[in-house]
Structures are given as structure tokens and as C-alpha cells.
Amino acid sequence: MKGLLIGGAFPAFALSLLACWVIFLTAMLLAPVGASSIGAFAEDFRIWCFGYDPVTGRLELAYVMAMIVPQFMIGAFITYFWWEPLRELAQTPKIVARYLAAAALLVVGSSAGFALSAGRAPGGELPFPAEELRTAYEAPRFSLTDQDRETVSLAGFQGNVVILTAVYASCPHTCPVILSQVQAAIAELSREEQEDLRVVAVTMDPESDTPEVLRTLAENHGMQSTLYHLVTGDPADVEHLLDRMQIARERDPETGVISHANLFLLVDRDGRIAYRFGLGERQQRRLTAALKILLRERIASG
């Protein structure tokens, strides 16, 4: 083991592995998405690793950087500390090529194995990997005002499953799609399941979205049911909540239009964020599947 670490074998293989992984990440960034097995795998990979939004085609730059930049930092570290052994090993190109091939085989084989082990649903779509994607992060706490001027807090929904998302009334693009996707997912639930569900849509424009404005928005989308709570409040409190929800957003100073991430956070009965979804047909099907799973669960403390 000591000889392996001192010589050039370990750093050469590690650098080859990093290089192949970066090539794989780049391929996932550039591969066309679609109904094919590779296209579906690439889309799922982008959604979970790059913050990809299927509707807008946007990627979260912070996610992309977090996936790729560390590989170069690790590579620089390895090169610095094993420079001499690497320089000596570079005199034997055949050996270097073997390490590179072994690393590539490992990356490609592992990725292919993951895709195959997941199986396929009808139509070539990856089935919803409920257990693998389940998280248990504490959901952000808040106390805001809904469209009926009622105080809404997550603590008040203890025991319910909550869909937590963000929209704003004057949004000209994806906010109506967000609300429609919520309604489409809920339409797939039974009446009994719907009774244990609540939807909280936080405004991204608290300065303009008063309860009256949000009431009009709810009426326009047929959201008069007690399931739906479109909430606003003190701008500082709302912005803090959106930050904790990791809703990336940016307002155009000239038009006032807010470019934003399109996210659904599913909070389980114990107040933990269990799943995170974006927009799109596949995401909608998974949103419905996840809701059914969470609604079947009971409160852990009960």
C-alpha cells in the first residue's frame, strides 16, 4: 500500500478517473434529452445533479459548478503532491493509457450499471426511485398570511403532507404552469388523500402581492378550496423563506419580470422535506407518485 501511494500508479489512476468523470459530466450536460433510454437518463441526471428545469431548459450554474469544479481542484492537488512520480510515469505512455482505459471503464460501467439496475417503466421511462431520492431535511419554518388573510404556518399543518412552492401573480411565464401542475397532480388523488394534503405557494413578489391580489390569482386558477394557501407577508420574511427553500430568482430592473427556479418541495407529515421536483410531464408523474407515498405514511411520533 505504501509503495502504491509513493509511486505513480495511484495518482495516475486517480487523475484518469477524474478526467473520465469530467468527460461523463460534460456528456450529460450536452446530451439531447428525449424519450430514448439515454435521453431519459440524461434528463434525470440533469434534474438531480444540475438543477435542470425541463420546461425552460435552464440549468442552475451553482449546481453545475459544484459538480465540476471540485474535480479540477482535486486534480491540481494530486498533480502537485505526486508531480515527480507522475513525471516519471509519463515516460511510459502505454502504462498511462492502461490507467486511463481502466478509469474510463469504471466510470462508464458504473453509470450503465446504475441505469440498468433501475429498470424501465412502460414507454422507456425510468421508474420513480422513491427510496433513493427520499431526504429528511427539516422544512423551513414560517408564519405568513394567505389570500383569505388567515395566518399560515408549517406548524399548523403538522400531520398533513404539504406541497411547498413559489409563484407570483404577475408572472408571464412559468408560474401558471406551476399552479396547473399542482392541480393536475392533486386531481390524481382520491378525495380521502386530498383531505390530508395542503398546498402553500409563497409569493416571489411580496411588495406587490397583497392578500387581495393573491385571492384574485387563486380564483383565476380555481383554487378556492381550503387545500390552497397563497401566502405573502413582510418582504424580509418572505425573501428569507425563499432563500431557505433554495428558490433561485432574479428580477429584471427594467421589466420587473422575475426569472426564477420552478420547484416543488414535498414536506411529509413530520415536517421534513422528503422530495424535490421541477416542472415537466415526467416530474408531474413523479410528484403524484411521491404524494401517494407520503399520504400513506403516518406520523412517526404517533
Can you walk me through this structure?
51% of the residues lie in helices and 14% in strands. With 302 residues, the chain is of the alpha+beta class. The chain is elongated and about 75 Å long. Residues 118-124 have low confidence and may be disordered.
Catalogue the unreliable spans.
118-124
Tally of helical segments: 12
| Largest sheet: number of strands, sense, barrel closure | 6 strands, mixed
Strand order of the largest sheet: 1-10-9-4-5-6
Mean pLDDT: 84
The total count of strands amounts to 10
Shape: elongated
The run of helices and strands is: HHHHHHHEEEEHHEHEHEEEEH
End-to-end distance, in Å? 51 Å
Instruction: Decide which structural class fits the backbone.
Output: alpha+beta
Taking all Cα atoms into account, the compactness measure Rg is 23 Å
Helical content, roughly? 40-55%
Q: Could you tell me the strand content as a percent range? A: 5-15%
